[in-house]
Amino acid sequence: MADVEEQWIALTRKVVGLYFVTHEYALLTSFISKRISWIGTLENEIYHHKNDILHFFNKECDVYKGEYKLSDEQYHVVKINDQTGIVWATFNIHASDLPPVSVRLSVVWGKEEEEWKIFHVHHSIPEQIQSEYYFNVENAKAAYQVMDERVKLAATTDSVTHIQNRNGFCNTVAKLRHEHPAQNYALIKFKVQNFRYINQRYGYSNGDRLLENIAKNMKQTCNPEETCGRIEKDTFAILYQFKDRESLNQRLYQLNDDLIDKRMKRKLFSEVQLLIGVYLIPKNSMESIPAMLDKALIALNQIDETQREKNILYYQEEMMEQQYHNNFILEQAMIAFEKDEFKLFIQPQFDIESGKTVAGEALTRWIMENGEMIMPNEFIPLFEQHGFICEFDFHMLEKLCQTLRRWMDVGMEIQPISINQSRMHIGEANYLERFCHIVDKYAIPHCFITFELTESAFVEENERMLTLASQLHQMGFQLAIDDFGTGYASLSLLSVVSADILKIDKSLLDGSEVNHRSYVILEKVIEMAHDMGMIVVTEGIETRKQLKFLRELNCDVGQGYLISRPVAAEEFKKHWLNPVIS
Ligand code: C2E
Ligand code: CA
Ligand code: CA
């Protein structure tokens, strides 16, 4: 017998021992290939993923309890090639309290990173073992082929949507480009906006149904020389041919309607929107497919999600520069976070009538070692994109509470401070509990913390906001609608959400000075907010003229450079009781 065959038998003997005698499943899993396809005890017990197999082993732990001995061990080996062999093991298991059971285990060994790993296992307890039948070489080869095809398919197919996965998609793209070199191809990468939220709100099974729906319809939009696949989670890719940008654009505009069934949209996901990044592949490009996918992704990532109508972006070379810059900022930000370079600044808010400081807004500044200051617009959107924002906002909340506590401890009379919370928090499990826990850790009375959320969150996640608003109120926090007038909300929002404070965006104030319509809107907004019992804060007051004008409109509170820019927390404390303006 060849050396390698003996190795396979020795390894299988070891596996049988770990599996059936000592039940050391953890050790057993170290033998398993990353690409395993397990064919279990029962006909339909087929697992493709290592996690499922681990789960199976855990179940097996319950079955094979107690003391076991083996007898009549026999090992047969069939070499498929130098890299692959099948070993068939038969033996009887003797448990102290049970009659002996015959077991057949077939193991396919393959090379992975220079080590022998299990690629498939089939374990059965036949009524009667007919060894000639089971150990027939032809049968072994046929069984191997079936398994091999299954593995290859599993390696290129997505288990949720049953369309191509990233590997399958890349292979087909390479093949199509090779077969049709004269064609213009566009590589499209798209994702479902706020998919995480859809999963949380409608449940994971409905999230999966949405993905299946998209996958099914996406396939139908492709002609035979085009292809599509699921790249990861909620991200898909399509390779379309195109004649000109206009016709391609038309197909892309259609995608939102084509890919999600109307019924599904109506029933569950009325707000589902796709974000689409496009890379037009230069005809003779020698780039790798992953590099092309990255470019489509760069375009996708640069879509401004607050601009609902602009959900398609084409890749341009400058975006790569921007991406490098963003990556650089993000890397530096992580270091800066550790070094505590994010500082709490506060901008005073003053009573429009009396000029007295009545509150403040916490705003973050990144102050680098060399003293350079980086503004939030440079890093907050990146933190949002990379999911770091939630940790960050909690960190800044903690800083604010620490600071307020310090001031209270030296006898200062503190005022309510509002804190910006990213809309990414909405839907986070235990978000409010965590928020509350931080505030309570420093024993800050809840009425001193105002929760600011931008108006688009109120519009798009209306129902959730209603719940959040009522929870916040129960806990005694104030709620402010930020950036009102930036184009999202309608006046009716004010009657739906019970917020305490309405913050009017600078753009509405600026517009009112030059445009009569904006003036009327501003006037009506203030009136209506008052009718709803809200306090109105106007942001971005820079001139005395604006201040006078807001007085006329009965606005309650102002915030802007005219009185003060956001200042370091300690500086804010110094001027705390020094607020009068005339
Ligand atoms: P925002 O919440 O709308 O904050 C008001 C912005 O207007 C601040 O910009 C403030 O400095 C600026 N501002 C105030 N008065 C005037 C004025 O008279 N004229 C002009 N031109 N601007 C004025 P800032 O500090 O650059 O912050 C930008 C945005 O970043 C904030 O907009 C807020 O949405 C976000 N942000 C800041 N800190 C945090 C944070 O810790 N967490 C989160 N999630 N977002 C933050
Ligand atoms: Ca704000
Ligand atoms: Ca604002």
Describe the fold and architecture.
- This protein has 582 residues and is α/β, with parallel strands linked by helices.
- The protein contains 22 helices and 21 strands.
- The chain has an eight-stranded mixed β-barrel, surrounded by four helices.
- Helix 7 (195-202) packs across helix 8 (204-220).
- It binds ligand C2E and calcium ion (2 copies).
- The site of ligand C2E has 24 residues, from strand 13, helix 13, helix 14 and strand 17.
List the helices and strands and how they pair.
Blueprint: H1 3-21, H2 25-29, E1 38-39, E2 46-47, H3 50-63, E3 68-81, E4 84-95, E5 101-112, E6 115-124, H4 131-134, H5 137-156, H6 166-179, E7 185-192, H7 195-202, H8 204-220, E8 227-232, E9 235-241, H9 245-259, H10 262-267, E10 274-281, H11 289-301, E11 312-314, H12 317-338, E12 342-351, E13 357-367, E14 373-374, H13 376-385, H14 389-409, E15 417-420, H15 431-441, E16 449-454, H16 455-460, H17 462-475, E17 478-484, H18 492-496, E18 501-504, H19 506-514, H20 516-531, E19 535-539, H21 544-552, E20 557-559, E21 567-568, H22 569-574
Parallel strand pairs: 10-11, 13-15, 15-16, 16-17, 17-18, 18-19, 19-20
Antiparallel strand pairs: 1-2, 3-4, 4-5, 5-6, 7-9, 7-10, 8-9, 12-13, 12-20, 12-21, 13-14
Helix pairs in contact: 7-8, 12-13, 14-15, 19-20
The site of one calcium ion has 4 residues, from loops.
